[in-house]
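Late entry, written up from scratch paper. The run itself happened at the end of the previous shift, but nothing got recorded in the book at the time, so transcribing now.
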Amino acid sequence: MHFKLKIILLLFLIYFQILYSNDIFLSKRSGEYYDNFGRKLTIDNFGYGIFEEKGIKSESFKIGQPRSVETTYKFTMIFGGRYYANTYLYFTDKNNCILIINGYLKYYFEKN
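Output as recorded:
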């Protein structure tokens, strides 16, 4: 019985090491993203973001949990004094994402 417990613990250790080294976590995707028109999306290690366009910054918004492995996030963003409740952030890969505001404004960002 003691041997089986060691094997199970070893498998859990390997499993969590694979998860920890994976770059799909939101915290591993933190950084500054830019589009072709000078817009900037900043994501920090704690799952918060700030959108900036023409020198105007949004209020800090919560995207998701730092250890989240999702590729799609829905949140509310306040930009220019207006609330945008149907805001989505899609990660297409490690260095690219798409920000969709109210279902029709689409911004394509690349990590710098």
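The chain has one domain: 24-111.
(Scratch paper discarded after transcription.)
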